Amino acid sequence: MVGSFSGINTALSGLRYHQVALDVAGNNVSNASTDGYVRRRVTADSVGGPAQPALWSRYDGHGDGVRVAGVDRMVDALLDARVRRENGTLSYLRTSQTVLQRVEAGIGEPGATGVAAALTDFRKSWQDLANNPGGDAARQQVLGRAATLAQAVRVQAANVTNEASDQRVHVMSAVSEINTAAKDLAALNASILTTEANGTDANTLHDTRDQLALRLAELAGGVVTVQSNGMFDVTVNGVALVSGKAAGQLAVTGGIAPDGSAAPGDVAFAVTGLAGAPEPVTVTTGELGAVVDVLTTRLPSYLSGLDAIASQLAAAVNAQHDDGFTATGAAGGAFFTFDPANAAATLAVAITDPAAVAASRVAGPANEDGSNADAMVDVFGPVEDGYQRLVNTFGTTVAAVERQTANQAALAGAVNDAWEQQAGVNLDEETVNMVMAQRAYEASARVMTVIDEVLDTLINRTGLVGR
Fold first, then answer.
1. Do residues 54 and 120 both lie within one domain?
2. pLDDT (tens digit per residue) in 412-431
3. Based on the domain organization, do 232 and 261 belong to the same domain?
């Protein structure tokens, strides 16, 4: 029923609505620096006449105030999906870049302590020996520089092997984090559904779930699909990891033992707990995808190339050394020893006596012939060229990954900026909103004061006549 008393309810609705607006603006300001927080905005509905006409009466009012329709999060589902995708790709590239740069630093080329410098010094030591085949110092120099070269090759192989060991531990850590995030996301799906059904604000839960979804994208390239009831489903390369309230478990099924050591076969994964049997999944992006690529392709490729260089070096030097004679007139024999299955890590000098260095091609003791040492210089050319190609190829790979990372960082940064403009808190804007809500609240209070005065006149002064 329209009348003076209804105006109080209209003013009261304004007070209530603008109080909520003030609360929401204040909450936005308070969380301006909170990671993952999405700013809120109050939406209003105007309270008007009844939607259904009455048979014997009609509504003759002009509105009954305002009510809070909801408190919305300022998000865009398409932009959220783009943020997850681009950051997942960036995580893949940054992880690859970090690992490859660390390996490149361990290679140490070009540098005074690298394999290339040791190869050059070893070759020069044979030249010095050719010029002075009878000198013990020249022979000792050959052995010393050979030992330095073998050690440089072994150290480089050990650096690559240790990096692979660290990355296997990295895989186990990433899998554990993925499983925890998937479990928490499934639990949030259930909590959000229940909370919203009860009419309670679930926006903070939505914020947390979005952060978990983004983290799964960064870790394993998780793709989110939103169900009709608002729940998130997450897949990894097409294989379900989270389905509504249920979460699967990502497990390592090959290439890595439970203790993090190497196991036979390539690194492989499967999702358990959602289907009847474990479902194999190939992780190709995100942090985990980068580590898998490094473990199965990049590090083995470089180590295989280094093994080939070590084998080539040992075979060439041994063949030439065996073709010569030592200071005592004996056949030269093998100069290096190595395990063909793991050449770089096992390369070592086979002789320790300077007199056993085969500098001569003339049989007989105490000769002054250095022709075999002179011929030894020529065997290093193919080895040095092969090692240079190996290092250059790896360096080109690192440079390419660095360029891709820089480009992807720019793209992800643009997407993140767009998300921040949509969902981030702008303090200037929130200040304006607070002032608007404050003034509107004051105006609603003033309306209520005016109506109170009107009612006072109506109730206490109507019918009174002056005396």
1. no
2. 999 999 999 999 999 999 99
3. yes
